[in-house]
Amino acid sequence: MADPFSPFKVDLPLESQRGFNTRQIHSGAVPDPATKARAVPIYSTAPTVEVLEKRVAALEGGTAAVACASGQSGVFQTVLCLAHAGDNIISSINLYGGTYSLFKCILPRLGISVKWVQDSDPESYRKQIDDHTKLVFVETVGNPRISIPDLRAIADIAHDNKLPFAVDNTFGAGGFWCPAIEHGADIVIHSATKWLGGHGTTVGGIIVDSGRFDWSESDKFPHLTKTSEGPMAFSYASAFGNVAFALALRIEVVMEVGAVMNPFAAHQILVGIETLSLRCERIASNSMRIAEFLSDHPLTGWISYPDCKTMATHPWGSTHSIMTEEDRLSAGVTEDLIRLSVGTEDVEDIIADLSRAFDAIVLIHENVQTSVDRITPQTCNIKSDVGVNEVESSVVEML
Ligand SMILES: *Cc1c(COP(=O)(O)O)cnc(C)c1O
């Protein structure tokens, strides 16, 4: 019998025969029947968003995906779909600043508590699980300390307890760097604002259902497994099989909460995704060169090396500044941490820019002896004349 839900699903047997580079250009779309055009058109209704959903699901190896307004709304709506007042979720403390605030401040107001894991031992997740736990959550590459959790070990612990494992795989670049589902993730969340869109022009989020979690095996999610009362009497788990989570998320949360993606954002992200693997290759080789340059530089205190435009941030004073000093330190956000997000520019230009920043630091320290007030990047008279001067000026401003 034909699968009635095939319109909502990715054709996994077909997609698994295609490479990542082919999927990032073709998955989820067919040529326009009227014009034969290959490029995905913008329909100001749902079809453009649907192509994006299928394309990202295909890249990650999931059965279906739900696009939403931003990465933050993706994280929030995933939690809302699974945890209610009185429940808790287990999360690594190594998080993007916005997600940390959401978990620390907003979820508790809704009666959902967050139990934090501070260290990298997967067994620490097991210790936190109790009867009210509904979800285990990590980021593939924990922001900003660049911590890398053992996804498979944490997934196994979640699954031993019949709990779904959600991974914010934003830093896994749509599965190009880290196919999180292969490592045990049941739900994969992306801020499409970052690598997927790739050009800093659009905000978006997307949530992928791996289709692998057996909801009916767990008695923790009655709203997904029990038949609801009323005219729409059905159980998501038995009615929708391996797209149950995606459909529950879409119908019960995203449509009701309203943080949906608009078709114009979906179109921009689709265009961005076509070059995802190419950008990632350049970003990886640029990052390696810069890590080598920095590790050889006498002014570098320490370096940790495991985004599209190069950018330097100071998490202590910006993205993570709402955390208390103690929380920042326990999350590895020290005052001397400068986070470099390396882009696709010519690596020589980025290194030249960093060199100017180091020169400026030396100059500032010399000036400090004479007049503290007069020290600004301008008084140092080091304005870069090539393209990527944001790095130099932002590093200098941080100091
Ligand atoms: C940026 C980011 C988010 C939030 O995404 P927005 O699209 O900006 O809302 C969530 N998680 C990670 C890891 C991020 O880097």
From TrEMBL:
This is Homocysteine synthase. Belongs to the trans-sulfuration enzymes family. Gene3D superfamilies: Aspartate Aminotransferase, domain 1, Type I PLP-dependent aspartate aminotransferase-like (Major domain). The keyword Transferase applies. Its cofactor is pyridoxal 5'-phosphate. PANTHER family: HOMOCYSTEINE/CYSTEINE SYNTHASE, HOMOCYSTEINE_CYSTEINE SYNTHASE. It comes from the Eukaryota. GO terms for molecular function: cysteine synthase activity; O-acetylhomoserine aminocarboxypropyltransferase activity; pyridoxal phosphate binding. Pfam families: Cys_Met_Meta_PP (PF01053). GO terms for cellular component: cytoplasm. GO terms for biological process: cysteine biosynthetic process from serine; L-homocysteine biosynthetic process; transsulfuration. The modification N6-(pyridoxal phosphate)lysine is found at residue 194. InterPro entries: Cys/Met-Metab_PyrdxlP-dep_enz (IPR000277), Cys_met_metab_PP (IPR054542), OAc-hSer/O-AcSer_sulfhydrylase (IPR006235), PyrdxlP-dep_Trfase (IPR015424), PyrdxlP-dep_Trfase_major (IPR015421), PyrdxlP-dep_Trfase_small (IPR015422). The keyword Cytoplasm does not apply. Transmembrane segments: none annotated. Keywords: Pyridoxal phosphate, Transferase. It comes from Aspergillus taichungensis.
